[in-house]
Amino acid sequence: MAKANDGVSRRDFFRLGLIGGTALGLGGFSLAALGQLWPQVGGGFGGDIEITDMSADGLLEEVRANKAPFAFPAGKMYIIAWEPSLSGAREEYGEGEPHVIIDDDNGLMAVYQKCVHLGCRVPWCQTSQWFECPCHGSKYNRWGEWMGGPAPRGLDRFPATINEAGNLVVSTGTILTGPSRTARVLQQEPEGPHCVDV
Q: Which of 36, 65, 108, 138 could form a disulfide with 149 if both were Cys (CB 3.0 to 4.6 A apart)?
């Protein structure tokens, strides 16, 4: 007399394990793909970032005192000072563009730290007072305007405003195309040796 099988056969066990593992893998992949499509609503890159380290006036003072942009790695940006009173500055950067004007002579801009050539992070060179890409040698003056190299334009920018608390708020979800190669409002030559010699 044949004995009845009370449990799951080895073949059924492996078949169910394979089906279950595949279903879990596809489900995890689907959730990850959906997460990539879902907009970020927090204060991280891709959303509005309020810089609370110091007020907008404090940022301006720090940038001017250090002769260097304020780096904000979490937002993939640099905060730079610009002069709206310089001839052509308001036409290129101030009128109709969401760059911050603090007073007639002072303003702030948020520039994307990514080189517009191939996307390398562009560090600041303290000696030349320019942004200099170490990958292929694109160079940008302290306003992020193109000064040399293979980049097709100046550094891209983010819209910025000052809120009621006096803090700078940068919208990293919107990337504004950088100025053309010919838009050199700031006639700034390098102020010392270059950091990148490509």
A: 138
